[in-house]
From TrEMBL, chain A:
Family in the record: Belongs to the acyl-CoA dehydrogenase family.
Domain of life, source organism: Bacteria
Domain Acyl-CoA oxidase/dehydrogenase middle: 118-213
Domain Acyl-CoA dehydrogenase/oxidase N-terminal: 4-114
Pfam families in the cross-refs: Acyl-CoA_dh_1, Acyl-CoA_dh_M, Acyl-CoA_dh_N
Keywords for this protein: FAD, Flavoprotein, Oxidoreductase
Acyl-CoA dehydrogenase/oxidase C-terminal domain span: 225-371
Protein name per the record: Acyl-CoA dehydrogenase family protein
Gene3D superfamilies: Acyl-CoA dehydrogenase/oxidase, N-terminal domain, Butyryl-CoA Dehydrogenase, subunit A, domain 2, Butyryl-CoA Dehydrogenase, subunit A, domain 3
InterPro entries recorded: Acyl-CoA_Oxase/DH_mid-dom (IPR006091), Acyl-CoA_Oxase/DH_mid-dom_sf (IPR046373), AcylCo_DH-like_C (IPR036250), AcylCo_DH/oxidase_C (IPR009075), AcylCoA_DH/ox_N (IPR013786), AcylCoA_DH/ox_N_sf (IPR037069), AcylCoA_DH/oxidase_NM_dom_sf (IPR009100), Mycobact_Acyl-CoA_DH (IPR052161)
Stretches that traverse the bilayer: none
Organism encoding this protein: Sphaerisporangium corydalis
UniProtKB/TrEMBL annotation, chain B:
Domain Acyl-CoA dehydrogenase/oxidase C-terminal: 218-356
Protein name: Acyl-CoA dehydrogenase family protein
GO molecular function (one): oxidoreductase activity
Recorded family membership: Belongs to the acyl-CoA dehydrogenase family.
Tagged with keyword Oxidoreductase: yes
Length: 394, 359
């Protein structure tokens, strides 16, 4: 089936099946039920795990189909947000690095929405420099691990059944060499999840405490002390999935989009027209870049670190659009009785520049990995972790 | 929609690139741009004899290769990257106009196109959209008036003139009453001239409604072709500064290892990715989706024109003092980029047009 036909079918299916986002006022629990039910139907229809291997429950197609589907999904509103971390990052990491047992146990359930996953990398002292994290995992006699420490900014953890947890397993070697990635069951004793209110007033992310949490054998992803390589795999998927809009939907409902704005502003004012056209140009430029990446992928050229360029551009576009939208709409955008869509958009915009790696980190990656520029001198590569300065110090 | 090159297009790119590297490397560009005509006629002949670039999008029945605009974009990206001097771009513009008028223009197109497509006659068009110029047709069918700036106006063998009434005439280089006054150009690699017409004999190519609709599409295609050249200028500028950033040392390490430099280069790369996607899209629309062409052409000029200048500017600045010297090539890219950005009118005209189409 050619790509356009594939996309047409997806459009038809979505028009008939998209349940819309959780209704305003519905409880979080109801929202999760609706979302899980939708994921099961999405999987039945063949649109969950489009690029994932068929033997583990995916569809065995390419990123081109995935992006084609994402383009259609962006036109409607889907309740898939709580699955975005699992579908975009954790699942693809398991597909790449998981043992057959891990794949058999988790992937189909993840694709059907039976389990929600979260990514437990960042800590209070380690975000951009995530390899300086301090959460400790110590081996036990049964071949498992005991974990102590704290994670933070963990999206959707309040709904999560499992997490990909990055831990320190050796402090006597340099920081990149003593990390191990583990699968953690979020429902076991010792795991405490506390929702953190973010600047939108809602809790998109959480802080997580691990107190003597026991993880059984068979849950290492990749190698023991080879967790950095596993984390890099996750992060690569993260940038690609953010830029391609995996798990994101409802761009049509974005009040700061070109389409929405042109309906509410005075389009006869030449200055307004010029600002709108700038937004249109940037929106089209990025959409075409993403479409090109998907066509290249289909042709066998893996985008790799160029996904970081797309992630950076998306973050800039979202911030530019929200900023412009509030400015164009004027005082009533920031003082309102109901709605407040644009205030919500400007409050949410920074998330796109911070989550998944900051703009500065994306520029470092494009410079180092795409343009092959010389690296910065590093003071942290050879020092044993226990002697390294990390976190916030005064 | 097709945004990636076919294998034939990859071959075309490689062929044009290696041809230009041999026949018109940077040192030769400098030598030619300072010569009497601003280019080497032998290079132009070979470009057409060996690669057939002037006739690339001319239909086969008119002596061309019958290629698509996506192919043309590949070729012009390379000639842009090499800052090829001479009348190729002007000639390509003329072939686009004539090809689009083939239906409307009777014999004139049939007789004029083959020579241009073969590269024996260099041609040009004026005034281009967004450019001033007022030429009228007198009762006896001769031309009167002036066009202040025409690409390769002094060295082209044939000039297509768009009159104030929107008709298209062809004027031979040696025509009576044709004045050609060479201009000083910012872009040293491309000549322009002021043309004056006083009872100048001219041949009608197309008029009225048919001319108008053919020209509208032709000038959109011209905008796409120019964007392809701009993409090449952008890419070459970025490649040059990326290479230099790895070699130039300051404070004991390469300048490319400093984030102030690295981050700027990363942003320039983002512009390249988007400009590339837009050019491929616009060229695809030119070939396959005529309804999308006006918007795609305006988008291409609105985005790529600006991105090209910004990248060329920053590539010059990041070279430091050497970038400001006459000997270094950076200023040639900078000047080409700025000249191209305004070639089809002040940039705001593309934005206005896009606004009118999408808002
Ligand atoms: C909405 C949201 C959702 C998130 N979800 C998750 C999640 O699900 N799981 C998870 O693990 N994490 C998550 N994060 C965390 C996110 O990845 C980090 O916040 C981010 O990587 C930045 O780390 P930090 O907060 O420690 O800031 P820092 O690393 O302290 O950065 C502070 C500033 O320093 C700059 N900086 C740092 N290093 C460099 C450098 N080498 N060069 C130049 N500048 C530098 C940064 O760009 C930034 O401007 C989320 C964050 C947000 C905002």
């Amino acid at each position: 089936m050619d790509l356009e036909e594939y996309q047409r079918r997806a459009r038809t299916w979505l028009a008939a099946n998209a349940p819309g986002a959780r209704a305003e006022g519905a409880s979080a629990e109801d929202g999760v039920v609706v979302a899980k039910d939708f994921m099961a139907r999405l999987h039945d229809a063949g649109y969950s795990g489009i690029t994932w291997p068929a033997e583990w429950g995916g569809q065995g197609l390419t990123q081109a189909e995935e992006r084609a589907f994402a383009a259609e999904a962006a036109e409607v509103t889907l309740p898939t947000y709580i699955f975005s971390i699992g579908l975009g990052m954790c699942g693809p990491t398991l597909v790449d690095l998981g043992t057959p047992e891990q794949k058999a146990r988790h992937i189909r359930r993840l694709l059907r929405g039976e389990d929600v996953w979260c990514q437990l990398f960042s800590e209070p002292g380690a975000g951009s420099d995530v390899a300086s994290l301090q959460t400790r995992a110590v081996p036990t006699e049964d071949g498992g691990w005991v974990v102590n420490g704290q994670k933070v900014w963990t999206s959707v953890a309040q709904h999560a059944d499992f997490g990909l947890l990055l831990t320190r397993t050796d402090v006597d070697v340099p920081k990149h060499k003593g990390l191990t990635m583990l699968i953690v069951d979020m429902r076991v004793p010792g795991v405490t999840v506390r929702p953190l209110r973010d600047m939108t007033g809602r809790a998109h992310f959480n802080e997580i405490f691990f107190d003597d949490v026991h993880i059984g054998p068979g849950n290492v992803v990749g190698e023991v002390n080879g967790g950095w390589a596993s984390a890099v795999t996750t992060l690569l998927h993260e940038r690609l999935s953010i830029s391609s809009g995996v798990g994101m939907s409802g761009q049509r409902d974005n009040p700061a989009s070109f389409e929405s704005l042109r309906k509410i502003v005075d389009t006869t004012d030449p200055l307004v027209r010029d600002e709108l056209v700038e937004l249109h140009v940037r929106t089209r430029a990025l959409a075409l870049f993403n479409a090109k990446l998907s066509q290249e992928t289909k042709a066998g050229i893996f985008p790799g670190a160029r996904g970081s360029a797309a992630k950076l551009l998306l973050a800039e576009l979202i911030n530019f659009g929200a900023d412009l939208a509030v400015s164009l709409a004027g005082p009533e955008a920031v003082a309102y009785e109901d709605g407040g869509g644009l205030a919500g958009a400007i409050a949410l915009a920074p998330a796109m520049s911070l989550g998944g790696g900051t703009n500065e980190i994306m520029r470092n990656i494009v410079g180092d990995r795409v343009l092959n520029l010389p690296p910065e001198p590093r003071v942290d590569k050879k020092v044993p972790f226990k002697d390294l300065k990390v976190g916030t110090q005064s | 929609m097709r945004l990636v090159l076919s294998s034939e297009q990859h071959e075309l790119r490689a062929a044009v690139r290696s041809f230009l590297a041999t026949v018109s490397p940077p040192a030769k560009v400098r030598q030619d741009m300072e010569g009497p005509d601003g280019h080497d006629h032998a290079v132009y002949r070979r470009l057409n004899g060996e690669l057939g670039l002037a006739g690339l999008v001319v239909p086969e029945e008119h002596g061309g290769a019958g290629g698509g605009h996506a192919d043309l974009a590949v070729a012009l990206e390379e000639t842009g990257a090499a800052l090829l001097p001479g009348p190729l771009l002007a000639t390509v513009f003329a072939t686009i106009v004539l090809s689009e008028l083939a239906g409307a223009g009777g014999m004139a197109v049939k007789e004029l196109l083959p020579g241009i497509a073969a590269g024996t006659t260099a041609a040009t068009v004026g005034p281009l959209p967004g450019n001033r110029g007022r030429v009228t047709v007198t009762a006896d069918g001769t031309l009167e008036g002036e066009i202040p700036a025409v690409l390769n106006g002094a060295d082209a063998g044939l000039i297509l003139v768009v009159t104030g009434g929107g008709d298209v005439y062809a004027v031979e280089a040696g025509a009576e009453g044709l004045g050609r006054i060479p201009l000083t150009t910012l872009d040293l690699t491309r000549r322009q001239a002021r043309l004056t017409f006083a009872a100048t004999p001219a041949r009608l190519v197309a008029e009225g409604e048919a001319a108008a609709s053919g020209l509208a599409r032709a000038f959109d295609l011209v905008a796409v072709a120019l964007a392809a050249e701009q993409l090449g200028v952008l890419r070459a500028s970025l490649d040059a500064i990326v290479a230099y950033s790895g070699l130039r040392m300051a404070f004991g390490r390469p300048i490319g290892s400093y984030q102030a430099v690295k981050h700027k280069l990363a942003d320039m790369h983002c512009k390249l990715e988007q400009a590339d996607a837009i050019v491929r899209y616009a060229a695809w629309a030119a070939d396959e989706s005529p309804g999308e062409l006006p918007e795609a052409a305006a988008l291409a000029q609105a985005y790529v024109g600006r991105a090209c200048f910004e990248v060329a500017r920053d590539h010059l600045l990041l070279h430091g003092g050497i970038g400001f010297t006459w000997e270094h090539d950076a200023h040639l890219y900078y000047k080409r980029a700025k000249s191209d950005e305004v070639l089809l009118g002040p940039p705001r005209t593309h934005r206005t047009r896009l606004a009118d189409l999408v808002i």
